[in-house]
Design brief:
Layout (H helix, E strand, L loop, with lengths): L19 H10 L5 H14 L4 H8 L3 H14 L18 H12 L2 H9 L32
Helix pairs in contact: 1-2, 2-3, 2-4, 3-4
Length: 150
Amino acid sequence: MAAKRKRGRPKVEVTLVGDEQAELERLTRRKRTNRNLALRAQLVLDSASGMADTAVAAKNHVNPKTVATWRQRFAELRLEGLFDEPLPCAERKITDEDVERIVVENTEGAHALEHAAHGQEGGHQSLLRGPYLAGSRLEAPHRPGVQAVH
């Protein structure tokens, strides 16, 4: 009699070493952990306990392929594999020195203006209007892309 063949891709076994289980459990319980990271940690914990990918997926309301992906990534990279990778972005076109120079140019004298604005009814909001910022390129902080009203 021929051995029964398993369907699908081969399952990568996940065994936790050292204090990985404690760290994964901490990630799932901690309130300030990113929700996606906590889910990934839970998927790995459930997989390491011997549950099938379909059972882990049903328990955590995800696709079985998602379970297989994070199982594989944990097996290859361990805990570091659960964290988000930096997104591929275009290289910066402006240096830190340029940012600092622009901030200084646009806020020069702002300290004196703040003291003058305290006595006015508008408070700090008055800094966004009138001649104080005339000619500046400073944006309204609560509305990116919108120039300050003159």
